Amino acid sequence: MTELPTTQPRCTLIGARVQEGAGRLGCDMGPSAYRAAGLAETLSGLGHAIVDAGDLAPPAGVVDPAHPNATLRHLGAFAAWTAILSEAAYAASAEGIPIFLGGDHSLSAGTLCGLARRAAAEGRPLFVLWLDAHADFHTLHTTTSGNLHGVPLAYATGLPGFEGFLPPPPAPIDPRHVCLMGTRSLDPAERAAVRDAGVMVHDMRTIDEAGVVAPLRAFLGRVAAAGGRLHVSLDVDFLDPDIAPGVGTTVPGGATFREAHLIMEMLHDSGLVGSLDLVELNPFLDERGRTALLMVDLAASLMGRRVLDRPTQSY
User: Fold this and answer.
1) Could you say which of 20, 28, 104, 132 is catalytic?
2) Is 52 a residue of the active site?
């Protein structure tokens, strides 16, 4: 019997050279590093049609508004990037799988808003798998670092604390539809906010004790039962810094190579993922492209590469 060819969804690559939300420079080089590491060629080799939409134009002429929290930095640029990315995510999610190449994690304030709007237009809930050492659940008032890559989830889920500086999200995400995995660095304010909002948290202690399969399988079951659209936001610091040094927010004790790939393989098997963020890659801190290559490898697993098909890499 001749096996019929399968049609793979189109992938649209969208670069977002956002670095205003991070505490150090370099994330703006992330989109170029993903392209140099062969992301488009790798996904094309898996049978996906690839559209590289280039990099979004950065905001120009923005002014930082005065805010009672004097630690905040680049609030004007954050608001402008959020608007730009929200529109881009809404448009790109009409067909195929948009993959956003960051850039620091503040970009997800925009991608989440656009994707939640798309899900609402489809009459579906948006679920979010947040693979990150941090919860990024601060508001403009509670952050003490002033780095706005720590606020996107709080904003997109409609928490108060952004009024007058950003418009309300067009379709706030239900915090109970958010799953944090790999979390291992929360301060007291974030811990209380996450608990009170009902966000699902599987920290590294949970993964150490139970592994990744049972918690992820349970979450994916909820997404499927609700007919939801699933967005995955993958931060480099989700991974252990021994295997992914190219990030400015390293936290020891992150996910191993196999844990990360198993998550990606399960996500692919579920058939539920509709969009992806690849964030916080800082090529200036990387070692001969190790982290960029690993992130491309993980994206390939999510998009269908089997463990037996993984090529040998040399550095």
Assistant:
1) 132
2) no
